[in-house]
Amino acid sequence: MSKSVYVLFAVLLSLATVTSLSAAKPNIVIVLTDDQAPWAFGSAVRSGQFQDVPAAATPNIDRLASEGAVFRNFFCTTPVCSPARASFMTGRYASELGIPDFIPQPGHKLYDPNNEARLDPDGTVTIAELLKGAGYRTGLVGKWHLGDWTAPGNEKFHPMRHGFDYFMGLTGGGTTPDSPMLEEDGEVRKFKGLTTDILTDRAIGFIERNREHPFFLCLATRAPHGKWLPVAPEDWKPYAELDPTIPKYPGLDIMRVKKMMREYLASTSGVDRNLGRILDALEKNHLADNTIVIFTSDHGFNMGHHGIWHKGNGLWATKKQPPGEYHNGVRVISDKYRPNLYDESLRVPAIVRWPGMVAPETVISSTATALDVFPTLAQVAGVDSDPKLLGRSLLPLLKGEQPDGWNNDVYAEYDMIHYATASLRCYRTDHYKLVRDDHNDGCDEFFDLAEDPSENHNLIHDPRPEIQHKIKELDALLRRHAPKH
Question: How many domains is the chain partitioned into structurally?
Answer without folding.
Answer: 1
